[in-house]
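Customer escalation, tier 2.

The customer says the design service returned an amino acid string that "doesn't look like it belongs to this structure." They asked us to rerun it and document both sides in this ticket. The original structure tokens are below, unchanged.
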């Protein structure tokens, strides 16, 4: 079991052999370290010579354990699901405390990093700018099909850092994968295209893009094929009815996709 062998390597701090240094944390390394481990990480930083009242505060933060109730294990959606935290009054008394503590760690960390001289804002801003560039490529396809009014902005959200395609009114679909920090090039473009399509589908309930030949799924816009895929390192729009390739993202034409 991978999890068990990993567990053997965990030292008295509860972290593995590798732990992110503050400069790495400010550059996005915390995306892969759950916030319940951040107090222990703060302890590592203290031991390494970094010091500030906020760092001490984070190091002393108590995060109740994961297995404090029967619902802890079965809850779907990961530990930081914004809504899926279902707590039955009796069984999961430890869960709200755990999430409250992790929320506190999330809120504290940017200030902690700044207090010891490492500002996470530049790396986050660069990440958002990269995502916006990808969305700007997708904008060509929105324009060419007559959907230019749905110009998307990159919206940065929480932990792990994720960017979503946001409609001009600020609404977006955060239920999909969104764009993550380690993505770049065509992988990022693929996620950007997927996020645009998902936001259009979930918010104004528009299926986009739709194949000019086959149309969308005959039954429902919710039943079709995935609209975008990464094929041989190229992000392609796909026909949501039959699944064939339409055009690379950013190269859609009015002949290939239905226009408004
Ligand atoms: Zn088609």
């Amino acid at each position: 079991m991978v999890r068990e062998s990993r567990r053997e390597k965990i030292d008295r701090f509860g972290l593995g052999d590798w732990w992110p240094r503050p400069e790495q944390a400010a550059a996005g390394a915390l995306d892969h370290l759950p916030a319940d481990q951040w107090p222990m990480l703060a302890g590592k930083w203290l031991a390494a010579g970094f010091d500030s009242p906020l760092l001490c505060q984070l190091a002393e933060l108590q995060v109740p354990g994961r297995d404090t109730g029967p619902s802890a294990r079965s809850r779907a959606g990961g530990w930081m699901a914004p809504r899926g935290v279902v707590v039955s009054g009796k069984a999961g008394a430890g869960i709200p405390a755990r999430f409250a503590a992790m929320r506190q760690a999330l809120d504290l960390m940017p200030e902690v990093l700044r207090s010891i001289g490492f500002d996470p804002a530049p790396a986050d801003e660069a990440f958002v700018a990269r995502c916006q560039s990808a969305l700007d490529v997708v904008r060509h396809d929105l324009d060419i099909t007559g959907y230019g009014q749905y110009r998307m902005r990159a919206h940065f959200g929480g932990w792990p850092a994720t960017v979503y395609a946001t409609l001009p009114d600020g609404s977006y679909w955060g239920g999909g994968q969104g764009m993550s920090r380690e993505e770049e090039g065509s992988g990022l473009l693929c996620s950007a295209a997927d996020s645009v399509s998902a936001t259009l589908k979930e918010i104004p309930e528009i299926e986009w893009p739709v194949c000019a030949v086959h149309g969308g799924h005959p039954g429902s816009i919710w039943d079709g094929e995935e609209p975008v895929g990464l094929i041989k390192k190229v992000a392609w729009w796909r026909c949501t009815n039959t699944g064939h390739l339409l055009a690379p993202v950013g190269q859609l034409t009015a002949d290939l996709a239905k226009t408004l």
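Tier 2 assessment: The sequence is consistent with the input. The chain is about 40% helix and 10% strand. The longest strand covers residues 153-157. Sent an explanation to the customer and offered a walkthrough call.
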